[in-house]
Amino acid sequence: AFTPRVFSGIKPSGGLTLGNYLGAIKRWVDMQGPDFETIYCVVDLHAITVWQDPADLKRSTHEVAAALLASGIDPEKSVLFNQSQVPGHAELGWLFNCVARVGWMNRMTQFKDKAGKNTEKVSLGLYAYPSLMAADILLYHATHVPVGEDQKQHVELTRDIAAKFNHDYGVEFFPVTTPVIEGPAMRVMNLRDGSKKMSKSGESDMERINMLDDADTIAKKFKKARTDPEGLPSDVAGLKDRPEARNLVDIYAGLADTTAEAVLGDFGGAGWGTFKPALAELAVEKLAPISDEMKRLLDAPDEIDALLAKGAEKAEAIAEPILERTFEIMGF
Ligand code: ADP
Ligand code: NA
């Protein structure tokens, strides 16, 4: 039996969005407590799969750590650290490159989305990244991984790698990890194009809500969010084939810790002119205290670094025996 242990990570690759908050951070905070050991990581080795200006990488690393702390990740309750400070991630990542099959990687839809037609010019790291992600998770024998919907396929690959390793070496060494994808806002969409997910790296700032946006900006972005001409339906069946409407209702539900049904119970029949300002107000109410605290923390990057260094020591203590045993099993 494996200790119930949660691992999850966020890339420091630009400003954090409401998608990161609702799909990941908020739920990481909720999972702290007696049921799980919780390990949360700023995954900087993943960020460099696409070009990162060195100064921006450092600044984004601090921003992600600050966002986690400001949102309620408690370094006394959780292990919070930066991936590159624990060398075992890269080491196990290499071992898993030799377990994962090229055919499996070829099926990763996120790679296809990110690389587009330009597969000759993207980094080898972008292609191999799900295998490093498997290493991140399995280096701690994590049993549960809370992620947004976009990461489901990568957690399934992690399960495949664990199962193949266990099978090939005749051991029951790595757990078969469960993705935890629960809640109303596990796939927050772009505010201008409801067919794309909201992302740090989208083209226009108007398509996403950033965790550091001020109240006026948040109100303006929701006001300009694309919607259809109909107002809000009285139940979720009325959101069918209306991705933009569905998205705004899901965001409201995620922020309010409720369900889309309950939101429509309150707002069914209203127009967007009523709903959008209410949504903006709720988002500001939830995000402003977090962004204020983030800004305070970002003024003291040395304190963030000190916290991350302590977290890395704790992470290392869990990872080291697991990595050592992995090498042994493989015959090193
Ligand atoms: P991004 O895709 O913004 O670069 P990451 O790849 O670092 O973010 O993902 C960090 C976490 O945030 C993952 O658990 C991912 O599933 C979640 N996430 C990212 N974007 C969204 C979104 N639009 N909706 C829900 N969750 C998201
Ligand atoms: Na992502």
Automatic annotation (TrEMBL):
What's its EC?
6.1.1.2
Q: What class of enzyme is it?
A: ligase
Task: Write out the catalysed reaction.
Answer: tRNA(Trp) + L-tryptophan + ATP = L-tryptophyl-tRNA(Trp) + AMP + diphosphate + H(+)
Tell me which PROSITE patterns the record gives: AA_TRNA_LIGASE_I
What stretch of residues is annotated with the motif 'KMSKS' region? 197-201
Q: Where in the cell is it found?
A: Cytoplasm
Gene Ontology MF: a single term = ligase activity
Q: Which UniProt keywords apply?
A: Aminoacyl-tRNA synthetase, ATP-binding, Cytoplasm, Ligase, Nucleotide-binding, Protein biosynthesis
* List of residues binding L-tryptophan: 136
> Which residues make up the binding site for ATP?
11-13, 19-20, 148-150, 188, 197-201
Q: Where is this motif: 'HIGH' region?
A: 12-20
Alphabetical list of NCBIfam families matching this protein: trpS (TIGR00233)
* UniProt subunit comment: Homodimer.
Family statement: Belongs to the class-I aminoacyl-tRNA synthetase family.
| Primary role | Catalyzes the attachment of tryptophan to tRNA(Trp).
| Name of the featured protein | Tryptophan--tRNA ligase
Native organism is Sinisalibacter lacisalsi
